């Protein structure tokens, strides 16, 4: 094999740094979102290698040209059967990488600018069918408050619904971010890109949260520990999203027997989605809702009005299972397959 060029090594190094350093620390703390970035680049590198014959020594900036990206999107639809929604999700992830690459290598900045001119695929748009307020009420009545776990689950569901925050934003909450003994009780949410927003909560939610805090954190909680923590790791370890979804599904099964509108296979994001639609029903304008949800683009919030939840989560649902182990930095070796050279997992056939 020929020796990799300096440009090849630079691009491979930036792919590795983007996925293993920049995205986890600057873009998101959500494992689902991180997987979305990882899988998009896995598919793109796989496309370059399998369809375009690009080997490590041939990796160049031109491999990320507008015409190549457009061919990749067509390949995703025709060869891998991806929906327009999934293609748009993959394109957004690739654009994020190219923006990062351009900020580090000025000679490659044009790649990001060209990528922004690629049209998104047209998505089917349907009226949202979310959980009703009655369905949420029934769901919140299911935890057994005579148990410690039941009290925790109720407090967790109330906070998720009250704030409509992302799951990782809730699980990343520390005691110091709760401001309950003030005129207008609120929670400080740290969102994507470390952007901060304040979410006000109603007296009933405050009461439940205070009961939970007393039960799980004592009379004088440590301000530096997590509000909802892992049983195995203690208060300095976050409760996992897997554990949350397991509990939500358990309560959803019970609630479904009383109200069929409660999704049998409930996911944490559905409570966020439900709150957003209820804000709309209550007359809140879309700009306010966009801010409360922590969306960067108003168009993202508009999706809550026009498409179903199933479509909105389709990109995440189509992600293939991936090994959670970190990938070693193999770009320095410049040997083997292109995916290995870039330090990412090989594409599944």
Describe this structure in words.
The chain has 349 residues and is mainly alpha-helical. 55% of the residues lie in helices and 5% in strands. The chain has helices at 6-27, 31-52, 66-78, 84-104, 109-115, 133-140, 148-163, 167-171, 203-217, 241-258, 268-281, 286-293, 298-306, 309-312, 314-317, 338-342, and strands spanning 178-179, 186-190, 196-200, 229-230, 234-238. The strands form two sheets. A three-stranded antiparallel sheet has the order 1-2-3, with no helix packed on it. Strands 4-5 form a two-stranded antiparallel ribbon. The two termini are 24 Å apart. The model is unreliable at 307-329 (pLDDT under 50).
Write the layout of secondary structure elements.
Blueprint: H1 6-27, H2 31-52, H3 66-78, H4 84-104, H5 109-115, H6 133-140, H7 148-163, H8 167-171, E1 178-179, E2 186-190, E3 196-200, H9 203-217, E4 229-230, E5 234-238, H10 241-258, H11 268-281, H12 286-293, H13 298-306, H14 309-312, H15 314-317, H16 338-342
Antiparallel strand pairs: 1-2, 2-3, 4-5
Helix pairs in contact: 1-2, 1-4, 2-4, 3-4, 4-5, 6-10, 7-9, 7-11, 12-13
């Amino acid at each position: 094999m020929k020796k990799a060029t300096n440009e090849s090594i630079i691009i491979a190094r930036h792919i590795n740094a983007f996925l293993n350093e920049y995205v986890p620390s600057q873009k998101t703390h959500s494992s689902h979102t991180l997987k979305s970035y990882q899988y998009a680049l896995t598919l793109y590198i796989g496309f370059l290698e399998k369809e375009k014959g690009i080997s490590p020594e041939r990796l160049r900036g031109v491999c990320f040209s507008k015409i190549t990206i457009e061919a990749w999107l067509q390949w995703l639809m025709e060869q891998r059967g991806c929906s327009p929604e999934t293609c748009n999700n993959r394109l957004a992830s690739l654009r994020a990488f190219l923006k990062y690459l351009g900020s580090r290598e000025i000679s490659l900045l044009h790649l990001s600018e060209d990528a922004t001119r690629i049209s998104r695929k047209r998505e089917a748009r349907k009226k949202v069918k979310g959980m009703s307020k009655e369905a949420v009420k029934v769901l919140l009545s299911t935890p057994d408050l005579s148990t410690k776990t039941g009290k925790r689950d109720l407090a967790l569901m109330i906070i998720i619904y009250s704030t409509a925050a992302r799951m990782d934003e809730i699980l990343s909450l520390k005691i110091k971010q709760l401001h309950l003994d003030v005129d207008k009780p609120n929670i400080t949410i740290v969102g994507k890109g470390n952007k901060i927003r304040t979410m006000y909560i109603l007296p009933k939610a405050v009461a439940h949260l205070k009961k939970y805090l007393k039960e799980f954190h004592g009379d004088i909680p440590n301000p530096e520990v997590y509000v909802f923590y892992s049983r195995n790791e203690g208060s300095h370890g976050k409760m996992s999203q897997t554990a949350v979804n397991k509990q939500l599904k358990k309560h959803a099964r019970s609630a479904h027997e009383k109200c069929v509108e409660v999704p049998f296979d409930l996911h944490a994001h559905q409570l966020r989605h439900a709150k957003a639609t209820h804000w709309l029903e209550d007359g809140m304008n879309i700009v306010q809702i966009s801010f409360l949800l922590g969306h960067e683009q108003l168009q993202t919030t508009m999706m809550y009005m026009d498409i179903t939840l199933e479509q909105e989560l389709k990109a995440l649902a189509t992600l293939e299972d991936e090994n959670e182990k970190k990938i070693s930095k193999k770009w320095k070796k410049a040997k083997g397959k292109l995916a290995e050279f870039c330090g990412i997992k090989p594409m599944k056939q």
